[in-house]
Amino acid sequence: MAQQQPVVRQRAAWWQSAILAVVGVLVFVGIVIGLDAAFQPQLTGTSLIIVGIILAIVPAILWLVFFYLQDRLEPEPKREVFKIFIVGLALASAIGIPLTDQVFRVEDWLYRSSTSLVLGAIFVIGAIEAFIIYLTVRHFIYDSDEFNERTDGMVYGTAAGLGYATALNVQFILGSGGAALGGAEVFIAEVALAHAAFAGVLGYFLGRAKLERERIWWLPIGLLLATVLNGLFIIARSRLESGSIVVGAASVLPSITGLILAGALALVVAAIIAALIRRDISHTETRGSRAAVDAHIGDMQSNRVTVGMFAVLIIVGIITAAVVTGGMTSFDVSGFKGDYPAHFGLATREGDVLRVADTLGSGAEFAIQTLDLEAGEDANRVAARLTVQRGTEFQAYKVLESAETTLNGKPALMQRFAYVDMRTLVKALPIVVEGKDYIVLDGNRAIVITMLTTPDNLPDVEPQFQQFVERLTF
Amino acid sequence: MNAQLKLFLAILSTLILLLASVFTALAGGPHWQAAAGNLVGTDDGARVPAQAKCTKMEISNPSLWFATDKEGNVYADKIVKQYPDGTSYIAAGFEYNCIPKNTTVTVVYYYGGFDTEPVFTDSSKEKATNEGGTFWWYIGYDDGTPIPEGDWQVEWYINKKLASQGEITVGGGTKEDVEDIGDETGDDEESTSIDDIWNWGDEEGEDQAATVTVQGTIVDGKTKKPIAGAMFIVLNPGVGAQEWVDAKFPTEDVFSAGQTDTKGKFVLSQPLERNVTYTVFVVAKGYQPIVAEDFMIDDQQEDPVDLTIKMYK
Questions:
Q1: Which residues of B touch A241 (CB under 8 A)?
Q2: CA distance A133 to A122
Q3: Is the pLDDT assigned to residue B205 strictly greater than 70?
Q4: Among partner residues A41, A238, A249, which is closest to B26 by beta-carbon distance?
């Protein structure tokens, strides 16, 4: 029997190195904040982005160095640990982040309600991140001979988690075109510590799965735990760090509540895993290893069930996203029936049949108005009336496009327009508004259905408006 | 453990040193703002005798110090013996008889003694004139924050030759320390009273308007970058946050609102009343909304009220 004997050597010091790593990252952040506050460097453009990216990578590298230093008795080959870090970073950049940001567009709807926050944080962000980290370890190192100790799961899991965190941090710096260094470093360290913590949990489950015969639900439970932990962290942080309104200039010192939370989480997780691994090792010493003779088949099944667990989680995530973003509210006013997006609120003013606005989001408005027709007036005459009315009310009103179409089987005139709204009064830049009208003649009245939004929000708002128009009956 | 700790400390200190040098190199902070002023033809030849044809520029020694206000305006008719608390700008200067051709005036400011590093120095080439006048050079921070209190010194060089020196204390000065030389000369023009110039301690007693304009900047709490398109919404007094959200945020409950421009700045469409509690929502796409149910502007706050709002993702 050429079975590999699991290593049962105990490393009393490794969890101390976790503490050292957390403290090291926190000290580093403190120094960056201190230097930023003391010197207030005036960085702009490329230099700001370059310094930002360096600062985005440092906490992960610091952490990895500490761990590596501690893992000296039988060090994991540097190449392998670094490889897992890079694979985690690559998978996060190629799959994880595009999924959360572009496919699910979590940022657009996460904070719409407490329910959307809880479900989105756990079933979308938490599940995707945990699964990417699981994939990284499970498929790029788990089967290797180098994965032969209980602590290895932790080391590789943490490396993968830090890879994910670094991808998020670099994207954060690039996405914001550089950032105030002190505040940015707090966030970067927070992301790194939190990911190290929940990836460490997942790593513990992977380590035990490799070295002991575990039941088929062992790894899925690990994935679920890491998912929930990640989600709960996002929820707790948003509750603690929800913004501030102050009179006068804000303090130069950034808020560190999220960082304290992440640091505490990392320390608690490290302590718990340390205790568990210690217990596992003493069990092995007294009762011998329960590692499977042929672990391969069990592994494959367990892997499938884990993938299944992720599928379940993400399906809940998809349903959450669909309900939150696709929900509609029905209305029935003055003979007009239809639905508008559920996150819009009523904003009906004098002269409107109905006006709804995305007050707590993009600020976009959909409105229905009716105008009495004068003898011989057609849709183009109505459009001209609108031009006169808007031309006096706003600056630089222009019709960009005009076309004949049909709506509800009735001939209609569609026009796109833009104008400048000076509603911000003094000391603020005017806002460009882009809009779309449908003008339908209906007996002796004209029905004008209007969308107002900003050029930035137009790609998101227009499909919602089309749906609003198509569902409208009168 | 010990060897590892040493290595850890070594790595950390290297990083700190590296960062410190980068930060020092790029350090900004408040900058000095300074400018020269020259009032030719003031009728103050009493101090320095005028000449028919200018051959040599005679200037008053020791240097004079002039009253300044919070905006950096210099009042050349008011000589100061000591600047008050909270002074933002100081202006050293002199009276002169005339200015010959090719005259360069150089000013050097010190803080804490002539033997210290100069705080500020600059030169300016002056236009020739046969008339006497008053010349000054003010300095202060570009953001208007008060300059350090203590003793300030100045040196004046005419064509690189030391011509005048002077010293003044910043802090503790009162209106008694001001000598109005504008009146001495029988100037017809109405001169600004020192009460109007040094009025920055007296604002508490002024009557407050019942309403205040509210404006502000909305920034990302982490990057400090401005957030464009964010909304600052103030509800009618008495309307609570939950009530408004439950009613699907109808606009009829909105008392006042402002949307940020690309620089993150907004101004509320409607001024707010003092000492009235409002519910405030701050919302921006992709950010956690801020809800404040006890937003109030009290009598202490100046008009307009300038807010800074940090939002987090």
A1: 221, 312
A2: 15
A3: no
A4: A41
Scanning A58-117 for CB atoms below 8 A from B yields 58, 62, 65-66, 69-70, 107-108, 111
Q: Please name the member of B8, B26, B309 whose beta carbon is closest to the beta carbon of A43.
A: B26
Judge whether A183 is closer than 8 Å to chain B, CB to CB: yes
Q: Does B239 touch chain A (CB under 8 A)?
A: no
Strand order in the sheet with A244-247: A244-247, B305-311, B214-220, B265-267
Of residues A212 and A54, which shows the higher confidence score? A54
First to last CA, chain A: 81
Which positions ≥6 away from A306 have C-beta within 8 Å?
A: A134, A138, A219, A220, A223
A407-439 confidence digits (pLDDT tens): 878 888 899 999 887 654 445 567 788 999 999
Instruction: Report angle CA B295, B252, A113 to the nearest 5 degrees.
Output: 65
Closest CA to A379 of A436, A435, A441, A451: A441
> What is the spatial distance between Cα B162 and Cα A440, in angstroms, rounded to a whole number?
85
pLDDT at B247 over 80: no
What is the DSSP secondary structure assignment for residue A453, as one 8-state letter?
Answer: E
Best probe of the B interface among A173, A427, A454, A458, by most B CBs < 10 A, is A427
A349-384: per-residue pLDDT in tens? 788 889 898 877 777 899 999 888 887 788 888 888
Q: The domain B2-29+211-311 is classified under which CATH number: 2.60.40.1120, 2.40.50.90, 1.10.3130.10, 2.70.150.10?
A: 2.60.40.1120
Determine the angle formed by the axes of helices A150-175 and A78-91, rounding to 10 degrees: 40
Domains of chain B, residue spans: 2-29+211-311, 32-207
Residue of A317, A387, A271, A388 lying closest to A16 (CA atoms): A271
CATH of domain B32-207: 2.60.40.2550
Collect all residues of chain A within an 8 Å Cβ-Cβ radius of residue B306.
247-248
Q: Are A123 and A316 in contact (CB under 8 A)?
A: yes
Interface contact flag, B19 A32, Cβ < 8 Å:
yes
Written as one string, the DSSP assignment of B172-193 is S--GGGEEEHHHHTT--SPPPP
Cβ-based contacts of A111 with chain B (< 8 Å): 287-289
Q: Is the pLDDT of residue B40 over 70?
A: yes
A176, A246, A427: residue with CB nearest B215: A427
Q: At B40, which helix (H) or strand (E)?
A: strand B32-40
Q: What's the complex ipTM? A: 0.74
Sequence-ordered list of residues with C-beta below 8 angstroms from that of B298, at least 6 positions apart, any chain: B274, B275
Angle at B304 between CA B301 and CA B309, to 5 degrees: 80
CB atoms within 10 A of CB A427: 13
Calculate the CA B143 to chain-centre distance.
4
B312–A241 C-beta distance less than 8 A: yes
Compute how many other C-beta atoms are within 10 angstroms of the C-beta atom of residue A323.
14
Q: How confident is the model at residue B3 (pLDDT cuts 50, 70, 90)?
A: low
* Residue B6 touches partner A, C-beta closer than 8 Å: no
Give residues 165 to 184 of B whose Cβ lies within 8 Å of A. Answer: none
Q: Are B122 and B109 in contact (CB under 8 A)?
A: no
Q: How far is A401 from chain B (nearest CA, A)?
A: 25
* Inter-chain residue contact A359 with B251, CB threshold 8 Å: yes
Domains B2-29+211-311 and B32-207 equal at CATH topology level: yes
With bands split at pLDDT 50, 70 and 90, how would you rate the model's confidence at A133? very high
Element spanning A175, H or E:
helix A150-175
pLDDT score recorded for residue A223: 92
Interface of B with A in 197-236 (CB under 8 A): 215, 219-225, 228-229, 231, 233
Count how many residues are written for chain B: 313
Report the residue of chain A nearest B252, measured CA to CA.
A347
